[in-house]
Amino acid sequence: MLTLVAAALILNHSSDDLRLFNLRAKVVRHYGFLIPRSGTPMYYEIVKRLLGLSIQEIAESRKLNGKQALQVASKYLATMSTEWFKGKAPTIAYDDPLCRWAYIFAHVAVHANCLEAVIRKCESASAKFSKRIRRDELSILTFGGGPGTELMALAKHFAFLKDQNKGKDYNQVDVRLTIVDRISAWSENITLVQEEIDRVYKNGSVARHKWPARFSVFAHVLDMTDIKAFGNLPSLFKKKDLFIFNYMISEIFNLEHSIPTMRAISKSCADASYFLFVDRKDQDTKAKINFLIKKIRLKIVVEGESANYDTVDGDEQKSLLGPISRHLGREPRHTWNSCWRLAIKS
Ligand SMILES: C[S@@+](CC[C@H](N)C(=O)[O-])C[C@H]1O[C@@H](n2cnc3c(N)ncnc32)[C@H](O)[C@@H]1O
Fold first, then answer.
1. Are 296 and 326 within 8 A, CB to CB?
2. Separation between Cα atoms, residue 257 and residue 234, nearest integer Å
3. Of the four, 84, 137, 140, 303, which is 20 to 30 A from 62 by CA?
4. Tens of pLDDT along 7-47?
5. 108 lines ligand 1 (CB under 6 A)
6. Using alpha carbons only, how large is the chain's radius of gyration in Å?
7. What are phi and psi of 243, to 5 degrees?
8. Ligand 1: residue whose CA is nearest its atom 1
9. Distance (Å, rounded) from C-alpha 334 to C-alpha 315?
């Protein structure tokens, strides 16, 4: 056990010291399977840029100075968790740009990494799902995807797949990503996330045709509990390889109101479309996801839950948000407790 702990410590050490470097090489040879996956770090970096790009304008539009704006954001962070866990429909003011700003700071990187980790687990558990997600062309819809979290997770997943294929042929994936959320104002964020992913993929001068994936992103406003509004977008849900619900079901407390929409979605989508639910792993949330899956008659392909407090991959640096954390008086999250269900329309 101690050897494993020492191995983990050495692997996480960033010193250039030669002795440590040699030791590290030895550990890599013996315990390579334990190494946290490293790839193209992007989560905290993108989050940092998103936050920096918008705070001044948001503060000015609210007639606040920087300090006051951060105080409001900090209050939102404090109330958000209480709202999520109070056992009733949460009142989270996503309409307010400072609330969205606070959400991005605290939760987006960790939710993106969690989803990416779940996709990897589902890939290793289901060869059919893995084959599907490695197609050259993919059509994915994410519900409650307003912040752009799932876009980031997919961008990193494909960067990882390309890295894995080093030296061999890799076909760039063409992803049509439809993002649906009840809050229209998130759409600005999605555009920024997409620009940031382009910047990371470009990495100075990498030509577009060599990027791991090309994303065409479409954002739509829809409340999942409003079947009448669904009638405005009936074609949206056809021909999708994958529907993602990432930390979304836990926000819906009148779940029975979303059953008509979910039924309509599952009726209109093609057979063998996948549905991936990732969320908190408390009993209530798991029961809600199971209820939904049963109600719309999906078949579970893979299910699981994280160990207590899985952490963000070692290549991602939470410290990038250090200066903002100091002003806000709190750290962004870097652990998660999640459950997941990958189901299929059969
Ligand atoms: C906890 S956030 C998760 C966001 C993102 N998927 C992530 O993991 O970072 C929940 C999201 O679901 C959206 N949402 C909540 N209730 C919804 C509903 N009834 N219909 C559509 N979107 C909803 C919210 O606007 C918010 O963007």
1. no
2. 18
3. 84
4. 333 333 333 333 443 444 444 334 433 444 446 899 999 99
5. yes
6. 20
7. -110, 130
8. 247
9. 12
Q: What is the pLDDT of residues 259-282, one digit of tens each?
A: 999 999 999 999 999 999 999 999
Which atom of ligand 1 is nearest to 144's Cα?
A: 12
Question: pLDDT (tens digit, 9 = 90+) per residue, 149-171?
Answer: 999 999 999 999 999 887 678 89
Probe residue for ligand 1, chosen from 107, 189, 248, 262 as the CB with the greatest number of ligand atoms within 8 Å: 248
The hierarchical CATH code for the domain 109-319+331-345 is 3.40.50.150
- For the chain, domain boundaries: 1-35, 109-319+331-345
Question: pLDDT band at residue 77, thresholds of 50, 70 and 90?
Answer: very high
At residue 307 the predicted structure's pLDDT band, cuts being 50, 70 and 90, is confident
Residue 337 Cα to ligand 1 midpoint, Å, equals 18
Long-range contacts of 195-202 (CB under 8 A, 24+ apart): 196/42, 196/45, 196/46, 196/49, 196/50, 197/42, 197/46, 197/151, 197/152, 197/155, 200/40, 200/42, 200/45, 200/46, 200/155, 200/159, 201/155, 201/159
Distance (Å) from CA 180 to ligand 1 centroid: 9
Whole-model pTM: value is 0.88
DSSP, res 333: P
Distance in Å, CA 200 to ligand 1 centroid: 26
Instruction: Compute the average pLDDT of residues 239-254.
Output: 95
Alpha carbon of 184 to ligand 1 centroid (Å)? 11
Q: How far is the CA of 23 from the centre of ligand 1 (A)?
A: 45
Q: Is the CB of 187 under 6 A from ligand 1?
A: no
